[in-house]
User: Fold this.
Amino acid sequence: EVQLLESGGGLVQPGGSLRLSCAASGFTFSNYALSWVRQAPGKGLEWVSGISYSGGSIHFADSVKGRFTISRDNSKNKLYLQMISLRAEDTAVYYCARNLAYSYGSNYGMDVWGQGTTVTVSS
Amino acid sequence: QSVLTQPPSASGTPGQRVTISCSGSSSNIGSDYVYWYQQLPGTAPKLLIYTNNQRPSGVPDRFSGSKSGTSASLAISGLRSEDEADYYCATWDDSLGVWVFGGGTKLTVL
Assistant:
């Protein structure tokens, strides 16, 4: 069974840092691009970042550019999101999602989603 | 304000057919595939429709998608109580260089 399992969420003060992880199983991890999508409380979905199958291509939403970093370890089947300079507006459930193929861009939407991990930025 | 526009709510009675619209522009829906996601209360989004009108295995054929120009639609026929959920459309925006989502439509089964 294809599965994604996020971890690393929690309560952090404004300006703080957090690293989210996503452990994958049930598919050939290194063949697929991956994305992070977040959902603020009571709000809709927002794509945050994507990384290609090899990690050679990455992209971020303007709202997190310069503060978030995405990476992957294909030997461990893991995806990461390093978040720094966190703001209250970063409070959300963060989902890890698999893209349909090797790229996160046009034509390759997200098919499998994890259950999410909650990040709360508050003093 | 979402890049893609969806009605905030929709409703129907069991057995009815309902449609949910998603409106965009030439830089997103007009030039890329549309995806639809179902989010049941308290759960992660689930892929319902990909590349405009394809259903993943396991998704009932009661769900169908279509696209015309810069708009797309999700149709649900034979409405059931378990269809009560939030529905989101999504596509890649060539101008913004990001995936964009509609604001979501809350479907209520009366």
